[in-house]
Structures are given as structure tokens and as C-alpha cells.
């Protein structure tokens, strides 16, 4: 029985493509996606997907490649064209590979030169103009197809998770992402237009010499148009590299977010608490973006983020680094480790730190919260009798219940680690309860 079934399968495999519906689909290279058929070159598609997976493994690898929350569907594609669904976070690791413009042009020219004339044309002039038109058409397509793929497969920003939208706007500048994609699509349209025009002119040649001249002229014009607009491709390459290097945040794993004024010691604590290795220097705004580390506790993996410092000012006056910190707190389910430096060495006065701290504590009151006073070895404690109000108490002891630590002397670090571990376990329970509530 098994042998007969195997033989039947082999017989079906040997059926010529033109003799069955499934064979015709295979011959045309159709890929089934959501009930629609899309013509693709099967082997090229497979190679491209493999390369894309290899290039997307930047940063920390998350289990199952994207163990992100699945409540929000991410739609990728241009309006009016098929969209692909992805998880709510991790779109940047799924961006298509963008080739440098010089490589796209070199590959297109090489393939176009190898296009032969149609067989069976005896007349020399007809054969030459046929070859010229086909080569111009091939060059146009080899340049336009990758540009079309880029514009279709880069995610539409409006369908991204709010955190990823904030990263695009604050890292690349508001509107720059869409502008780069628009320029790439504009370049594609220009190449298609000039390519069709030159192929048509070559096809109307009256002699072999005229066909050769129009072919050379057409190749130069198409190449010139691509050169003029190639900056759009290079800008898109920069966008892809920048976004793909962004840290991946897993919504199903508890995240500890270190917040505070610039230069208060957040990065030093990230190094002690997690696997993260941020730059540690004695000047403000050392942290230039969101840096990710991990804590392994009881065989569970937790996330730790180091964020740029916050200054005392209104949101409209904040720089993009500060807005990145607010984006993490606003859009991600984080537990907050707020770091205070009352020694006077960080460059932000305790009064300003207190004002910013009260604002953040009230604004993100739904987050689990732990206060830490760093550099406690440099502090001089005032007598309790002199403490008249909250500001005076803050300047001497920090917020009520804050842990005092010193990275230099290692004072308070064991207690800090224990409290952090307990808070992350509580955060995990909170995430699971919210997930169960949504499912029910």
C-alpha cells in the first residue's frame, strides 16, 4: 500500500506543468497567501527570505524569533495592495534587505546585457531593434522591481505599535520615514516612464546602426535617471540599518525601566543589575538611546532598559532623547526604577530633580515603582530636627522608602537586587493578569 502511494506521488510529480491546474500554478510560480495568488519567482523568493532572516538577527534574539504580544495586528504594504500581518512588536527586525544603489545598478546592467533577441528573426535590423528594446525593458524592470518591493514591504507607520511609531519619529525625525519611501517610489516611477519611452524608440529603429545607437542612448538615460535619484535608496538603506538595530522589547516579559535626571548613575546600575553594558561617563546625556539588558532569575528572563535623562521642563520643550524615555513609559508595560542623585555631582539640582520626580510619579502612577538614591557615600545627612517640609526631607533622604546605594562601595546593592527581583516577579503577575482579562 505504502509503495503504491509513493509511486502515485512520484507520478504526480512527473506530470508536465501544463497538464494540470496545480502544475500550471507551479510553473507560474504562484505563492498562496490569504486566498490570493501572487506571481513570484520561487527560488529567488526563497533565497531572498533566507537572506532577510539572516540580516534580521540584530540585537538580542527573542524566543521564537518574535515572542511579542499578539493583540495588535501590524499591516505591511501600500494602500490598495495586499498586507501582511505580523505581531504587535518586532516589525523593525522584519524589514526587507535594502541593497546599495551601486549594487542594484550593477546587477541590473549585467542582467540586461545578457538578454538575447527573440529567436527566429532573420532580418538583421529587426533582430537588432528587438534585442535593444528587450534589453532596455529588462534594465528598467531590474531597477524598478526592487524599488517597488521596498515601498511595499516597509511597514506603514500608522499600523505600527505606538512605541515603534515613537521610535521612528524621534530617531529619524517626524515625517522623514514617509518622505524617504515616497522618494524611492518616485524614482521607480521615473525609471519605468523613461524605460518604456526608450524601449519604444528603439523598437521603431529603421536600421541596425540606428537600433544600436538608440540602445546605447537609452541605457545611458536610464542609468542617469537612477544615478540622480539614488540618494533615496541610500537614505532607505540608512533607515533600515537604524531601525533594525533598535532593541526588541517583548511585551510578555517584565521590563525594568531606569529613569531619572542625566548623569545620576542609571547606566552604572544597569551594568550591575543586568547583562546590559551601556557607556558610563561623568557627563550628562551619555545614554543616547534606549539600551537593553536582561536579568535571569529562577530560569526566567527579564528585560532592563536604560533611558536618557529627564530635565525639569514642559513636554513641548523636551529634546528627542527625553521623549524616547517618555515613549517607553507611555507605551510599554514597565516597572520603574527611579534614580536620584542628591550629591550635587550630576549637574541637576535636588530641587529640579524633586519637581520632575513628582511629575513623573503622578503621571505614571499605574506603574510599579521603586526609588533609589545613588552615590550615597557622598551624602551628608542633615539632622532630623531641621527637616521642615517635603523638599528638605527629599534633599536629605530622598523619597520615602527609597533605597540608598553606592556603586563605588557596593553599599545597598544586595538589597537593591532583592527588591528589583521582587518587583519584576510582581510585574510578571500583573502582565499575566492583564492578558487573562483580555482573553476572557
Describe what you observe in this structure.
- It comes from Dioscorea cayennensis subsp. rotundata.
- It holds the Pfam family FeoB_N.
- Residues 321-377 form the Nucleolar GTP-binding protein 1 Rossman-fold domain.
- GO terms for molecular function: GTP binding.
- Residues 255-312 form the FeoB-type G domain.
- This protein is an alpha/beta fold and 440 residues long.
- It has 3 domains: 1-39, no CATH class; 41-244, Up-down Bundle (Four Helix Bundle (Hemerythrin (Met), subunit A)), CATH 1.20.120.1190; 255-439, Rossmann fold (3-Layer(aba) Sandwich), CATH 3.40.50.
- Helix content is 51%, strand content 11%.
- The protein has 13 helices and 10 strands.
- The strands form 3 sheets. A 6-stranded mixed β-sheet has the order 6-7-5-8-9-10, with helices on both faces.
- The longest helix has 37 residues, at 208-244.
- The radius of gyration is 30 Å and the shape is elongated.
- Residues 5-87 and 280-287 have low confidence and may be disordered.
Amino acid at each position: 500500500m505504502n509503495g503504491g502511494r509513493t509511486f502515485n506521488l512520484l507520478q504526480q510529480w512527473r506530470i508536465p506543468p501544463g497538464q494540470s491546474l496545480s502544475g500550471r500554478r507551479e510553473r507560474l510560480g504562484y505563492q498562496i497567501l490569504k486566498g490570493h495568488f501572487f506571481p513570484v519567482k520561487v527560488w529567488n523568493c526563497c533565497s531572498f527570505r533566507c537572506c532577510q532572516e539572516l540580516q534580521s538577527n540584530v540585537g538580542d534574539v527573542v524566543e521564537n524569533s518574535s515572542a511579542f504580544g499578539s493583540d495588535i495586528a501590524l499591516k505591511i504594504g501600500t494602500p490598495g495592495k495586499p498586507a501582511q500581518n505580523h505581531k504587535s512588536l518586532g516589525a523593525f527586525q522584519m524589514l526587507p534587505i535594502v541593497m546599495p544603489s551601486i549594487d542594484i545598478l550593477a546587477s541590473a546592467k549585467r542582467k540586461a546585457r545578457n538578454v538575447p533577441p527573440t529567436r527566429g528573426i532573420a532580418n538583421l535590423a529587426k533582430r537588432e531593434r528587438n534585442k535593444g528594446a528587450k534589453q532596455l525593458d529588462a534594465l528598467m524592470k531590474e531597477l524598478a522591481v526592487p524599488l517597488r518591493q521596498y515601498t511595499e514591504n516597509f511597514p506603514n507607520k500608522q499600523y505600527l505599535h505606538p512605541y515603534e511609531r515613537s521610535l521612528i519619529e524621534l530617531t529619524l525625525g517626524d515625517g522623514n520615514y514617509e518622505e524617504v519611501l515616497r522618494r524611492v517610489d518616485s524614482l521607480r516611477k521615473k525609471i519605468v516612464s523613461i524605460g518604456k519611452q526608450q524601449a519604444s524608440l528603439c523598437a521603431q529603429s529603421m536600421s541596425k546602426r540606428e537600433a544600436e545607437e538608440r540602445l546605447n542612448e537609452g541605457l545611458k538615460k536610464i542609468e542617469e535617471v537612477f544615478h540622480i535619484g539614488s540618494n533615496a535608496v541610500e537614505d532607505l538603506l540608512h533607515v533600515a540599518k537604524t531601525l533594525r538595530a533598535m532593541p526588541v522589547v517583548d511585551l510578555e516579559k517584565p521590563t525594568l525601566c531606569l529613569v531619572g535626571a542625566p548623569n545620576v548613575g542609571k547606566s552604572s546600575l544597569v551594568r550591575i543589575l543586568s547583562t546590559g553594558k551601556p557607556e558610563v561617563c561623568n557627563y550628562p546625556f551619555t545614554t543616547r538611546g534606549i539600551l537593553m539588558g536582561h536579568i535571569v532569575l529562577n530560569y526566567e528572563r527579564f528585560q532592563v532598559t536604560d533611558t536618557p535623562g529627564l530635565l525639569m521642563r514642559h513636554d513641548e520643550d523636551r529634546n528627542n532623547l527625553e521623549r524616547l524615555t517618555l515613549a517607553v513609559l507611555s507605551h510599554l508595560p514597565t516597572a520603574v526604577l527611579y534614580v536620584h542623585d542628591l550629591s550635587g555631582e550630576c549637574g541637576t539640582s535636588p530641587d529640579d530633580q524633586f519637581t520632575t520626580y513628582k511629575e513623573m510619579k503622578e503621571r505614571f502612577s499605574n506603574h510599579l515603582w521603586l526609588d533609589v538614591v545613588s552615590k550615597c557615600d557622598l551624602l551628608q545627612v542633615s539632622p532630623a530636627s531641621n527637616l521642615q517640609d517635603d523638599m528638605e526631607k527629599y534633599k536629605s533622604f530622598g523619597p520615602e522608602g527609597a533605597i540608598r546605594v553606592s556603586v563605588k562601595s557596593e553599599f545597598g546593592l544586595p538589597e537593591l537586587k532583592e527588591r528589583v527581583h521582587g518587583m519584576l516577579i510582581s510585574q510578571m503577575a500583573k502582565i499575566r493578569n492583564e492578558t487573562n482579562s483580555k482573553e476572557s
